[in-house]
Specification:
The complex is a heterodimer of chains A (122) and B (544). In chain A, β1 and β2 form a beta hairpin. In chain A, 42% of the residues are buried. Chain A has a single domain, classed as 2-Layer Sandwich (Transcription Regulator spoIIAA), CATH 3.30.750.24. Chain A has 122 residues and is an alpha/beta fold. The longest helix of chain A has 16 residues. A 5-stranded mixed beta sheet of chain A has the order 1-2-3-4-5, sandwiched between helices. Chain A has 4 helices and 5 strands. The mean pLDDT of chain A is 92. Chain B has 13 helices and 19 strands. Chain B has 3 domains: 128 residues, GAF domain (Beta-Lactamase, 2-Layer Sandwich); 132 residues, 2-Layer Sandwich (Beta-Lactamase); 227 residues, 4-Layer Sandwich (Phosphatase 2c, domain 1). Chain B is of the alpha+beta class. In chain B, α1 runs parallel beside α4. Chain B starts with 5 loop residues before the first helix and ends with a strand. In chain B, β1 and β2 form a beta hairpin. The mean pLDDT of chain B is 89. Classes of the chains: A alpha/beta (122), B alpha+beta (544). At the A-B interface, α2 and α3 of A face α4 and α5 of B.
């Protein structure tokens, strides 16, 4: 049975928030890719990925982040990650994602982070 | 301890609480240095700790020549002007604390006892902190291993649900990128019959075919900098790829996956190479499965097409031969494959004023669907032209031009055509490159009529000669394809035209259909079960 996965979008000023819900793996990754691509196509490179309702992420799911980050930062934006449950956050951390992504607790924290650190070196 | 004053006991208690409450080595050492430097009134001190490979500087204050991690011992301490040296812990010592000459030296036993106790407590704290750090490190390694196993399982699960090679490449690429946080990767894999599948992110490698040969010696997994093949190393380095995994089906390398740098200058360790090789092995199985599936589907599709072609072809052969006044005609065809390239037909027409019939045996180039389409073109052309041409030779010319114009140059047909008049037995004969036709006279004379021109449809503007003869009572005319005369045994002995003529001579009194049955039986007996390589087509015509 394929696991359900959804992306819901909201906005905080010029920052787009993508709320992930469910199981992000090789098969659901295209849904997430399309959501990010849509933001880039609309020239909105300031992104927050809210993983509060993300129940699982596989390496393929993490691969989506790697596929877009250079393009996002080249456009002067960034991708901040927030709201991860401890279980999901651990997967990010084992692979070292905190080294190149800002990972904070809440959406307001992430919005705040855009004012202090709008982008990072890719 | 009995000599230690109350104020010192209080200080020790405070230190013990501080030192044991923290598992953080850094905090612990800071506290130790503060206490010791405060009591001795010194501004320069070094703590060195032995974690298994000798004493090394763990923390220094006021000493610039003792970087953290550098080797340290009593001699070095003295050289740095740190003569006051105290072991941290006794059995065995976990470290050494060295300070400049104290402004307030240790003057009595009580003071010495205090320091021993303090350093003893510190030694326990340092050991605890080390054990904790080690446990944390082991836990992290374990978590990483668990995550790697999960990735392999996840990958297997993901691959099991796809049937397209492009999808396998997509999932493989995403997983590689996520596992090592790489923004650049390239995957290319090749299967002879299906071509190349390639997926790249942040990289534009030249086509796989340009360096496929160099891949044959690619190891299972390797850092690009360790590659033996200089050209390959240069290519991957030029595209900033740091590690490469070969995709191998059996012993044969059929492609590779390569990854760019990891963030923060992290390198690919041997555990990473192992994991990548495991992932590559899974990907190859998935690629193979997809290709296998595609092969099966292609084969099914091909079989379906063949069945359609066979159906078309069967429809081209006359279901029954027309009843002809004056002639007894029988014919048969047995294709070597499901769809063959031979064709025969018997058509009736009015040749000028008298009725006539056309006997035709043809062998078209190629096999399968293309051959049967060419065959239907020949049939349609013959039928359309029949009766409009003054001579059989002209019929051949017109057929040739039409075939040449409507088919690719490589497509052609050999054909033997006989126009016969039932009333008189007069026949005209044209052969476009076809195998010899046998006319067995009642007298027993064997007349072999060969080609009177080139095959039909091969060149434009050709002409054909026309032979004439009369088919008399007792004469037998045999048109056939080369599958008859060239029927072979397992050791390549050919049936041959004379053996054919022998059978016809023996059976000449029988009806045409019986003669055909006898020839077929003789061929089958001759080849002794060897597989049939070419279509067998026979037509026998007798006067009645």
């Amino acid at each position: 049975m394929p696991h359900p996965f959804k992306v819901h979008r909201s906005a905080e000023g010029d920052v787009s928030v993508l709320h992930l819900e469910g199981f992000l793996d090789a098969h659901t990754a295209p849904v997430f890719e399309q959501a990010i691509q849509a933001e880039l196509d609309a020239s909105r490179p300031r992104l927050i990925v809210d993983g509060e309702k993300l129940t699982y992420i596989s390496s393929a799911g993490l691969g989506v982040f790697m596929g877009f980050i250079e393009q996002i930062r080249e456009q002067g934006g960034d991708l901040k990650i927030c709201g991860l449950s401890p279980k999901v956050r651990q997967i990010f951390e084992i692979l070292g994602f905190q080294a190149i992504y800002d990972m904070v607790d809440t959406v307001p924290d992430a919005v705040q982070r855009f004012t202090t650190s709008p982008t990072r070196e890719a | 301890m009995a000599h230690v004053s109350v104020s010192r006991l209080e200080s020790l208690l405070e230190s013990a609480q501080l030192l044991h409450a923290s598992l953080d080595l850094d905090n612990l050492l800071k506290h130790l240095l503060r206490t010791v430097m405060g009591r001795l009134l010194v501004t320069r001190a070094v703590i060195a700790i032995d974690v298994g490979d000798g004493l090394r500087v763990a923390m220094a204050r006021g000493v610039t020549d003792a970087p953290v991690g550098s080797r340290f011992d009593a001699a070095r301490a003295s050289a740095l002007g740190l003569p006051q040296q105290m072991p941290i812990g006794l059995t065995p010592a976990v470290g050494l604390l060295a300070t400049a000459p104290p402004a307030r030296p240790i003057v009595d036993e009580e003071e010495r006892g205090f320091f021993e106790a303090l350093l003893g407590i510190a030694a326990t704290g340092i050991s605890n902190a080390h054990s904790h750090a080690q446990a944390t490190r082991l836990n992290r390694d374990l978590d990483r291993k668990i995550q790697e196993l999960r990735t392999l399982m996840e990958l297997g699960r993901a691959f099991s649900r796809v049937s397209e090679v492009e999808e396998v490449a997509r999932i493989f690429g995403l997983t590689l990128a996520g596992q090592w946080m790489a923004t650049r990767y390239a995957i290319a894999v090749c299967r002879d019959t299906f071509g190349t599948v390639s997926r790249q992110q942040g990289v534009k490698l030249p086509p796989l075919s340009t360096y496929m040969d160099a891949l044959h010696h690619l190891p299972e997994a390797s850092l690009v900098s360790d590659l033996q093949d200089g050209d390959l190393r240069t290519l991957f380095e030029a595209h900033k790829l740091h590690v490469v995994f070969s995709l191998r089906s059996g012993e044969q390398v059929c492609g590779f996956a390569a990854l760019g740098a990891r963030p923060g200058g992290q390198t690919y360790a041997s555990a990473d190479l192992e994991l990548g090789a495991g992932m590559a092995a899974q990907a190859v199985v998935a690629f193979d499965n997809c290709w296998h599936l595609r092969e099966m589907l292609d084969k099914k599709q091909y079989e379906k097409e063949l069945a359609v072609a066979a159906g078309i072809q069967q429809g081209l052969f006359p279901a029954t031969l027309p009843d002809l006044d004056g002639f007894d005609v029988a014919a048969m065809n047995r294709p070597a494959q499901q769809v063959g390239g031979d064709y025969y037909d018997v058509l009736t027409l009015t040749d000028g004023v008298s009725p006539a019939c056309l006997f035709c045996v043809a062998d078209v180039s190629g096999k399968g669907l293309a051959a049967s389409l060419l065959m239907s073109t020949i049939q349609a052309t013959l039928r359309a032209l029949l009766g409009r041409e003054d001579s059989l030779a002209e019929l051949a010319c017109r057929t040739n031009e039409l075939l040449f114009a409507t088919t690719p140059g490589s497509k052609y047909a050999t054909a033997a055509l006989v126009m016969a008049h039932p009333a008189t037995g007069e026949c005209r004969y044209v052969s476009g490159g076809h195998t010899e036709t046998l006319l067995l006279r009642a007298s027993g004379e064997r007349i072999w009529m060969g080609a009177t021109g080139v095959p039909l449809g091969l060149f434009p503007g050709m002409t054909w000669e026309e032979l004439s003869f009369t088919l008399g009572a007792g004469d037998v005319l045999v048109l056939y394809s080369d599958g008859v005369s060239e029927a072979q045994t397992a050791v390549f002995d050919e049936f041959g035209p004379e053996r054919l003529a022998d059978i016809v001579e023996r059976e000449r009194a029988q009806p045409a259909s019986t003669i055909i049955d006898a020839i077929v039986a003789a061929i089958d007996a001759f080849v002794e079960g060897a597989p049939q390589f070419d279509d067998i087509t026979l037509m026998v015509v007798k006067r009645t």
